[in-house]
């Protein structure tokens, strides 16, 4: 079950080790560009209202995650030394846990204080249901 | 039927300038870094103006202007401030069509809404706070025979306000009217999706306010919103948006020890009890309209009734007629007065809604209406249109739990009162809700049992001034749209006065 990640005090999600979040090539490319400008990055998945349900991308540490969040995984981006942590509020995760997330990027405008907005694009989540096999594998961990 | 000419056409009621700078200290000021960004209309996808891309340097300039104006503005009489708000309301009213069409063009919403709802509500809001500040009283308490506590209201000073794109003008006025009435100066950042229409408004009312009282810095969240929200020189920050940015703004506020008000969205249940269908009358028709309210403003409303809960006894029949009502919604050009649903505000919003329709299908929800983008062809082919969509499923699906912010409703069945309340409250949010019943006791009890800041009973999407609006749970902190909002923009000064001639007796 859940355990605290020693680095941040943010609980790991059950079945840690199974991939929950991934990136499209376009998103990976944009993250390299954004890292050049802002340094190491992180994601926190938003909920609610205008720009909600969007993955917000911040300079790592700019957004304080804590015990009310969960850590879904670290995104490995080719060309970046440091992986990018992906977090979500724990209560929101309860409603999202049966879905696999892919961070994509689309043309668009604005998403809170997320770093990519001035580029005329925004990160967006595409989702699929976990397969029964994936689900069983996570439950058994 | 009438169709307004598009801005840019010779007979349009509104003409946008080719470029908008920042409004600082009562005049337009170019951005320090000299950069601008393009502003497209979601109606056709074409760029119609460009807007200053603000940075921290511009925010500092605006704060200089605001603090320059604050001492004098804070000491104006409430009569003076109320008169200015009333004059602003009169000017907006005299230019209603121009401002309404500007907002429709920029946001994509149908002009029948901006003409009869958004802008008239904004006008009324200015007048409401003009009245409220005149009528506000401090208090006097006699603590004992010789000791009296006086409580005065004082302005905070300079406040920051970050405005959403779904009601660019109304949401700005919701925040501005109480802040200005209370004697504060403001630095406001409009949404980067809808930065221009507020400048059409400022062209109409700008000269009524002393320079520096209201300053507008345009730009992106990360470049202009963050230096405003995290600034040591604001005494309060108000934000409407989503949960992660709301938390981030609270984190900044904690560093500066300033108050925040947050309005962060919802997943509002719209509950129909069996008895609504006991007669096929005007009330039944009204309740079917209440179901279709999910399509108002293209579903881009924090209180969108995006979860319809229908009781088992009428479920099949009511849903069938509700779907029929949904299919009668006319989608089209936002500047056509017959149009009921226009364009989504931006491409990313459009893409996000489609991604939710996709996950809804994957989770096994059944599409009863819509379920795809709408291709309206011609000049609208490049715009962002989604068909009003009705899903049938259950409350654990993501389309029942996440704010899609589009014209999408998810429908589920409930058995009895307790089941209705259980499903209604099984959500992270608590902003809006509605109860439909002919039984006053049922409606009252449900209204009290639902954990939400606004529960409509036998109506929906009504936003009159003097009815408090705000969220429970993850939907935010604070209330708007009511005179209690003045408290969010005021300090309390207590003068504790002794009228005794004698020493207190300690030394």
Question: Which features characterize this protein?
Answer:
heterodimer; A: 141 residues; alpha/beta; four-stranded mixed beta sheet; disordered N terminus; B: six-stranded mixed beta sheet; 15 helices; globular
Structural description of this entry:
The complex is a heterodimer of chains A (141) and B (507). With 141 residues, chain A is α/β, with parallel strands linked by helices. Chain A contains three helices and seven strands, in the order βαββββαββα. Chain A has helices at residues 25-38, 90-96, 132-140; strands at 21-23, 41-45, 55-59, 69-75, 84-89, 99-107, 121-129. In chain A, the strands form two sheets. Chain A has a four-stranded mixed β-sheet with strand order 3-2-5-4. In chain A, a hairpin with an 8-residue loop joins strand 4 (69-75) and strand 5 (84-89). Chain A is globular. Chain B has 507 residues and is an alpha/beta fold. Helix content of chain B is 37%, strand content 20%. Chain B is built from 15 helices and 23 strands. Chain B has a seven-stranded mixed β-sheet, with helices on both faces. In chain B, strand 19 (432-436), helix 14 and strand 20 (454-457) form a beta-alpha-beta unit. Chains A and B meet through helix 2, strand 6 and strand 7 of A and helix 7, helix 8 and helix 11 of B.
């Amino acid at each position: 079950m859940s355990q605290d990640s020693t680095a941040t005090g943010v609980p790991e999600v059950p079945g840690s080790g199974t991939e929950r979040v991934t990136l499209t090539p376009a998103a990976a490319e944009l993250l390299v560009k954004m890292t050049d400008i802002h340094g190491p990055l992180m994601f926190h998945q938003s909920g609610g209202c205008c720009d909600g349900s969007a993955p917000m991308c911040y300079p790592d540490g700019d957004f304080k995650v804590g015990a009310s969040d969960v850590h879904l995984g670290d995104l490995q981006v080719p060309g970046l030394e440091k992986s990018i942590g992906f977090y979500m509020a724990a209560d929101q995760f309860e409603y999202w846990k049966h879905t696999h997330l892919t961070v994509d990027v689309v043309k668009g405008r604005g998403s809170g204080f997320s770093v990519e907005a001035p580029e005329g694009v925004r990160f967006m989540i595409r989702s699929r249901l976990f397969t029964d096999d994936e689900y069983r594998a996570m439950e058994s961990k | 039927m009438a169709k307004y000419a598009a801005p840019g056409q010779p007979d349009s009621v509104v003409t946008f300038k080719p470029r908008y700078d920042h409004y600082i200290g009562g005049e337009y000021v170019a951005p320090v870094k000299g950069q601008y960004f393009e502003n497209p209309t979601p109606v056709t996808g074409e760029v119609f103006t460009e807007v200053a891309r603000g940075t921290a340097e511009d925010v500092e300039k605006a704060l200089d202007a605001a603090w320059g104006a604050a001492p004098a503005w804070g000491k104006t009489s409430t009569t003076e401030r109320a008169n200015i708000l009333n004059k602003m309301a009169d000017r907006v009213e005299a230019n209603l069509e121009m401002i309404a069409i500007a907002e429709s063009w920029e946001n994509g919403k149908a002009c029948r809404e901006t003409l009869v709802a958004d802008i008239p509500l904004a006008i009324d809001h200015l007048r409401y706070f003009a009245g409220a500040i005149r009528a506000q009283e401090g208090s006097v308490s006699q603590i004992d025979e010789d000791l009296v506590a006086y409580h005065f209201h004082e302005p905070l000073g300079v406040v920051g306000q970050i405005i959403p794109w779904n009601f660019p003008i109304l949401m700005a006025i919701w925040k501005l009217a109480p802040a200005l009435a209370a004697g504060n100066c403001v630095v406001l950042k409009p949404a980067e999706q809808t930065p221009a229409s507020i400048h059409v408004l400022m062209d109409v009312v700008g000269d009524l306010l002393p320079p520096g009282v209201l300053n507008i810095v345009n730009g992106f969240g990360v470049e202009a919103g963050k230096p405003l929200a995290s600034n040591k020189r604001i005494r309060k920050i108000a934000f409407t948006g989503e949960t992660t940015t709301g938390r981030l703004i609270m984190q900044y506020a904690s560093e500066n020890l300033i108050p925040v008000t947050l309005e962060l969205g919802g997943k509002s249940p719209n509950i129909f009890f069996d008895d609504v269908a006991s007669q096929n009358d005007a009330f039944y028709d009204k309740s079917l309209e209440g179901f279709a309210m999910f399509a108002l403003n293209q579903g881009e409303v924090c209180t969108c009734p995006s979860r319809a809960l229908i009781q088992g006894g009428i479920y099949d029949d009511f849903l069938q007629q509700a779907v029929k009502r949904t299919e009668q919604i006319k989608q089209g050009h936002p500047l056509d007065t017959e149009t009921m649903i226009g364009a989504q505000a931006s491409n990313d919003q459009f893409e996000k809604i489609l991604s939710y329709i996709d996950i809804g299908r994957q989770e096994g929800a059944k599409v009863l209406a819509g379920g795809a983008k709408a291709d309206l062809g011609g000049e609208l082919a490049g715009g962002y249109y989604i068909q009003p969509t009705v899903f049938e499923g259950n409350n654990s699906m993501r389309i029942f739990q996440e704010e899609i912010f589009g014209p999408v409703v998810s429908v589920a069945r409930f058995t009895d009162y307790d089941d209705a309340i259980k499903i209604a409250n099984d959500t992270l949010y608590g902003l809006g809700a509605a109860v439909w019943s002919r039984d006053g006791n049922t409606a009252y009890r449900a209204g009290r049992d639902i954990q939400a800041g606004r529960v409509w009973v036998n109506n929906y999407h009504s936003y009159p001034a003097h009815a408090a609006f705000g969220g429970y749970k993850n939907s935010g902190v604070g209330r708007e749209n009511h005179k209690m909002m003045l408290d969010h923009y005021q300090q309390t000064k207590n003068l504790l006065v002794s009228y005794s001639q004698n020493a207190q007796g300690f030394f």
